[in-house]
Amino acid sequence: MGESPTATLRHVLEVDDLESGELARILDLSELLDPPQVLAGHGGVLLFEKPSARTRTSMEMAIDQLGGHPVSLSSAEVGIDTRESAEDLGRLLSGYGSVIGARVFEHHKLERMAAVATVPVVNLLSDDAHPVQTLADLLTLRQCFGHLEGLTVTYVGDANNVARSLGIGCGLVGAAFRISSPPGYRFDDVSVDRIGSVGTEVSVLDDPSEAVAGADAVYTDAWYSMGQEEEQRIRRDAFAPWRVDDALMDAAGPDAVFLHCLPAHRGDEATDSVLDGPRSRIWPQAHNRMHSARGLLLWLAEQRGLPGDAGPADADGTT
Ligand code: CP
Ligand code: NVA
Fold this sequence. Notes:
Layout: H1 20-30, E1 43-48, H2 54-65, E2 69-74, H3 75-78, H4 86-94, E3 99-103, H5 107-116, E4 121-123, H6 131-145, E5 152-156, H7 161-173, E6 176-180, H8 189-196, E7 202-204, H9 208-212, E8 217-220, H10 232-239, H11 246-252, E9 257-260, H12 272-275, H13 282-303
Parallel strand pairs: 1-2, 1-3, 3-4, 5-6, 5-8, 6-7, 8-9
Helix pairs in contact: 1-6, 1-13, 2-13, 4-5, 6-7, 6-13, 7-8
This protein binds phosphoric acid mono(formamide)ester and norvaline (NVA).
Residues 52-55, 125, 133, 261-263 line the site of phosphoric acid mono(formamide)ester.
């Protein structure tokens, strides 16, 4: 890629790979209606070890909207650490695309890829984190309330990748984060400290009704994540009191919005009446995946010294 001499290589494996101001800039860029074609003539390579509807489609569309060409590969085609090491894939794909996105089980695969890649590596979900989801969540909240600072976001359900990134994201924008999960499915102290490490005002509450009282947003995710499908039956029993239904939304208050990263398991973590109800913002949130992906790619291009034009290919012909 023809980058400026001052270019810096930035990876986004967790939300706090971004400073607060950088996060705000990405949200602003996400709302640019006529973005510069910073990826014209360039590729974006997306690897998926797990299924995806929103992430793959939104990333592919965002790359296209910036003039680039997306290439998506499944684990069956790539085999991270089976057919080829994460490091060798990082080296390889750096020569084909201006950005590498990867959805993996083990987070260390992303870290190892990023350690050797010469283009930005973006976490498209790992067992630990889902930062690109958090960007869309924060964009949606900002559009709902006009600001982020001072909001209270309550996450109800499994203490997982989505919750961890959301909690960290809340801290970066000055929002308070509350979480209520069933016994056995709560964050350990290390994870709570991790969320608090960016200054998040984080509260862990046993009672979901108490946790949502006065919250601006109630957020939930699946009770079992990809790779935990065999735990579905046992988790259903444990999580039932943490289902987001109309009574829980009423406990939050009339102005609270409902968010869910999706896909939803209707009737499990949230009822149809909440998912489809007047306080639900799940579809703007899902559609913001594309806008925030575009904002992130624009910001990454800025870091590489590409304010409006991708520039010429490198001397060795790579882009
Ligand atoms: N929310 C989310 O990441 O959805 P997908 O798994 O469909 O990409
Ligand atoms: N926690 C879920 C999120 C899916 C978008 C999972 O990891 O499967």
